[in-house]
Amino acid sequence: MPDILPSDGADSVLVGRIWDPNSQGPRVVAVRGEELVDLTPMFGTVSELLENDDPADLVLSSGSNVLPWALEEVVQNSATGDRNLPFLLAPLDLQVIKACGVTFVESMVERVIEERCEGDFNRAAEVRKSVNKALDGGLASVRPGSKQALEAKKILAAQGMWSQYLEVGLGPDPEVFTKAPVLSAVGYGSGVGIPAFSSWNNPEPELVLMVDSAGRVKGAALGNDVNLRDVEGRSALLLGMAKDNNASCAVGPFIRLFHGGFTLESLRTEEIALTVEGVDGYRLEGRNSLSRISRPFEELVTAAHGRHHQYPDGFALFTGTLFAPTQDRDAEGLGFTHKNADVVTISSAQLGTLVNQVHATEDMEPWTFGIGALFSYLAGVKKV
């Protein structure tokens, strides 16, 4: 088994997409041991598959249309960058790609305190003590929208530390935004892009929930919500510029469908590890501990979907990250930012491993295969 699979890969139901160089289009596939089973004749899109009540059962009972390429071969091709060979695509297609921000109150408040205290550790300690007193159990115990959270907002505002991020971090409503256009996400082995206008940026290792049109979570994957900190830091109104650029969203390696012991409940304590390795020898390690998320998954899904907003083809929901890169790279006090050719590895026991390499956005291959191209391709696929 390739090491990109979950640790219990034999018991997991994994679906994804690969680029078929012969038919010049995407195939919906299921992982079956060392083989890839083509589901495209039955389900032209992953979105269509996830609309069923029990997609995992359908995958397990699907036919034996095995593709000529072994899983290991496709994984290796994906890492080489040779697009004349079959390679892994992002495992989602028609789903809208949404994301939640500031979902970890603990790290968010700490970041605001540190920034506003401008390196004054004594003042930071005093403010932290006041906030923790208001929250009884401390930052880790706060529930956004609660009386305690509102009191914390007042204390921070009184200290001159008001931030727009406190509203979505401590207030009743989470931040939910559209991360990337439909079909624009990249998969395992593909490059992720950093545009030339950014000089301060970082990866964001996250859990991505796969939700159908009825708002039911059907499975999950790993994601990299590439972030341009300098752009977003200038103004929250530049969020689109900071978040949505060519190859700025990576998802993969596969979607693990809920089945057996793998449920939404089992993800609540998932640990997502991050490693960044540079050609300069630099190494950064981080972690996103979902047990410390401040809002339950159901609240985030409900904020994105309901009578106020529908997604006929379902949606993917990035759930935010605890990780904030503060480790210096080039000089003391300058923190972290990406360099060309950085290798970003995001992994977790239940979801596998997503690997991408950083490149200049402007030098990457343009995104050309959109919804129209997909529909034209599927028109030629013979359905079962």
TrEMBL record:
Annotated GO biological process: small molecule metabolic process
Keyword Metal-binding applies: yes
Residues in coiled coil: none
Keyword Hydrolase among UniProt keywords: yes
Pfam families: FAA_hydrolase (PF01557)
An example molecular function term from Gene Ontology annotations: hydrolase activity
Keyword line: Hydrolase, Metal-binding
InterPro entries: FAH, Fumarylacetoacetase-like_C, Fumarylacetoacetase_C_sf
Domain Fumarylacetoacetase-like C-terminal: 175-358
Residues spanning the signal sequence: none
Protein name (database record): Fumarylacetoacetate hydrolase family protein
UniProt organism field: Paenarthrobacter ureafaciens
